[in-house]
């Protein structure tokens, strides 16, 4: 799963949800996005499998300031955050479960 985005840190109040104790899978979606539904399912399954991992899904249109700040240009975009909310991985498009699990390795130490 994708690139790192150095020096960006997100807080729970910006996301409107608590960060995971170990990592957070942050998904930007849009209303009529079929790959977003598949991504929601995959990230939800991974979050259930791995203790301390949260899945947070945000509607891109409802969070335009954050979308612009993070340069989200398509949905779904997934950011993997470590326990402090630092972005450690980034990917656009629907990810495979194996790729998400591998990306969590960069977030969970």
What order do the helices and strands come in, and which of them pair?
Layout: H1 12-15, E1 23-29, H2 34-49, E2 53-59, H3 64-69, E3 77-82, E4 87-92, H4 97-107
Parallel strand pairs: 1-2
Antiparallel strand pairs: 1-3, 3-4
Could you explain how this protein is built, in words?
This protein is an alpha+beta fold and 109 residues long. The protein has four helices and four strands, in the order αβαβαββα. A four-stranded mixed beta sheet has the order 2-1-3-4. The longest helix has 16 residues, at 34-49. The protein is globular, with a radius of gyration of 12 Å. The mean pLDDT is 93.
Spell out the key features of this protein.
109 residues; alpha+beta; four-stranded mixed sheet; 4 helices; 4 strands; 24% strand
Radius of gyration: 12 Å
Give the N-to-C terminal Cα separation: 17 Å
Shape: globular
Q: Which structural class fits the helix and strand makeup?
A: alpha+beta
Instruction: Provide a count of the helices.
Output: 4
Biggest sheet strand line-up: 2-1-3-4
| Helix proportion | 25-40%
What is the string of helix and strand elements?
Answer: HEHEHEEH
Main β-sheet description: 4 strands, mixed
Q: Which residue ranges are poorly predicted, with pLDDT under 50 across at least 5 consecutive positions?
A: none
The proportion of residues in beta strands is 15-25%
Care to count the β-strands? Answer: 4
Average pLDDT value? 93
Short account of what is shown:
The protein is of the alpha+beta class. 34% of the residues lie in helices and 24% in strands.
């Amino acid at each position: 799963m994708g690139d790192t985005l150095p020096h960006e840190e997100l807080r729970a109040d910006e996301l409107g949800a608590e960060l995971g104790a170990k990592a957070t899978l942050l998904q930007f979606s849009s209303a009529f996005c079929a790959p977003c539904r598949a991504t929601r399912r995959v990230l939800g399954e991974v979050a259930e499998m791995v203790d301390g991992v949260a899945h947070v899904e945000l509607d891109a249109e409802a969070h335009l300031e954050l979308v612009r700040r993070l340069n989200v240009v398509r949905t779904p975009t997934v950011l993997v955050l470590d326990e402090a909310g630092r972005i450690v991985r980034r990917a656009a498009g629907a990810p495979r479960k194996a790729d998400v699990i591998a990306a969590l390795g960069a977030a969970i130490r």
